[in-house]
Amino acid sequence: MKALRLLALAGLLSTTGHAADRVTGAAFATRSEVIAQHGMVATSQPLATQIALDVLKQGGSAADAAIAANAALGLMEPTGNGMGGDLFAMVWDAKSKKLYGLNGSGRSPKSLSLAHFQQLGLKAIPPQGPLPVSVPGAVDGWFELHKKFGKLPMKTLLAPAIHYARDGFPVSELIAWYWQRSAPVLSKWPGFKEQMTINGRGPNKGEIWKNPNLANTLEKIAKGGRDAFYKGEIARSIDAYMKKHGGFLSYDDLASHHSEWVEPVSINYRGYDIWELPPNSQGIAALQMLQILKAYDFSKIAFGSAEHVHLFVEAKKLAFADRAKYYADPDFVKTPVKYLLSEEYAATRRTAIQPDSAMQAVDAGHAPLNDGDTIYLTTADKDGNMVSLIQSNYRGMGSGMTPDGLGFVLQDRGEMFVLQEGHANSFAPGKRPFQTIIPAFISKDGKPWVSFGVMGGAMQPQGHVQIVMNLIDFGMNLQEAGDAPRIYHEASVDEPNGEPMHDGGITYLETGFPYETIRELMRKRHQVQFNNGGYGGYQAILRDAQNATYVGASEGRKDGQAAGY
């Protein structure tokens, strides 16, 4: 399928490890970077990119543009996000010269207990229906961003999404493909077929999609603010719908919801500060991987070589073992973030990596305990502000639960809870589940450099690490860094509710890695397979301080576009 394409590049990569033999990222670029002076937007849907660009041209801030784009993406890419999901963001504020973090994730229903799941005899929370539904945090996230960094009225920012919801828009290729896969599965849940399909099917590529119910919902929010969603008619509609269909999410859960501004955390990687958000998100997994990998001299290790892939996969195994054990809602469990990101801990973990043999089983480290399908977008404005924002319903289009007349699907993020007492991510009422969605940011010498993200569940931290390495270790430009073939390691321990890994997991390699790399990895006991998808989707904006411009990139694995003015 075209939307899952990447150039066939096998044989282009050297595996000698000598700098003179190294192939540059230009071998992978599907197009050139986008460069502009005054503003830049990169999203996973071209019409959403144009909406955000129009907001910037009207004098809106980077936060305004991000909100407008996200609202439009809920309509245009419901296969990955929407008002029924959660939101995380990082904002570089040019005035204070500071990076801010927003955790816009929702909590579990207060009336639902671990005992209820046990009484049902469940070993894991199901991915669909009423049980995995948690409070949708996206709308509150919009208003928090707007209150702190917005310039234009919210009515102006939501107007384009309302217009497209009423008048319709042509569905793009990859989104149509995912929609058609989701529709048969989710149509059994009340309200989904009536509001999110065309006679029970997803729309075809190029077919016009309208969602008047969503337009009405957005109009209520534009007029009544965030309370229209969490305390008004919308909240009452969600409450009544959930009660009618055996759910637990209530009006009180919505009315008591609030986002949190949090301090981003970072490690220094070869002179660059790499920023992520702390738990309950998985962002620090990327930082743990980089902390382990920075001890290796990649100026002498070729991109795509067996040594490159081997070290990456082994570092991932170590970080993800900790991810499964320690990452959880900080209001319930104090994840030892400082220790997990320390040089000392990375050095200890690094000793488990053997140069010629892949680890088959990995335990979490002994840290002191007292201490999804998704969309990603990034924006930058004329004043130097930059936003890195990610939003998701978790598993594709979410739970399937689609409240009457509202035009959006509620998320199934609660599936990420563990039904095991004593686990850091064990289900509890009013608790935020472990989150896979993570925005990223890179700064250097206290100045902004790159705002970026990679979508796709457990691929996200792995993708973040690969982008950082491509930019810093392998000298690729912003477009090349996203287009280069990716590595995705998958193991049973990857999720908090997963089983321990005993077989080393599977290393998936995208088209573009040479056969000699694959043979050498197999000699090192890696199970290597190919896969058409699952490698995420990438958007990024780079601040070129020397030329006072922005550089934008959006990869070919998605329908997206970068554009500036």
| Whole-number mean pLDDT | 92
**Largest sheet descriptor:** 7 strands, antiparallel
Strand share of the residues? 15-25%
Range of helix content: 25-40%
Shape: globular
Enumerate the spans where pLDDT stays under 50 for 5 or more consecutive residues: 1-23
> According to CATH, what is the topology of the largest domain?
Glutamine Phosphoribosylpyrophosphate, subunit 1, domain 1
Question: What would CATH call the architecture of the largest domain?
Answer: 4-Layer Sandwich
How would you describe the oligomerization state of the chains in this entry? single chain
Distance between the termini: 32 Å
Radius of gyration equals 22 Å
Helical/strand content category? alpha+beta
DSSP strand tally = 19
Strand line-up across the major sheet: 1-18-17-13-12-9-8
> What is the CATH C level class of the largest domain, in words?
Alpha Beta
Number of domains: 2
CATH superfamily membership of the largest domain: Gamma-glutamyltranspeptidase, small (S) subunit
What does this protein look like?
The protein has 565 residues and is of the alpha+beta class. The protein has 2 domains: 274 residues, 4-Layer Sandwich (Glutamine Phosphoribosylpyrophosphate, subunit 1, domain 1); 238 residues, no CATH class. The longest helix has 21 residues. It is globular and about 60 Å long. The relative contact order is 0.20. The N terminus is likely disordered.
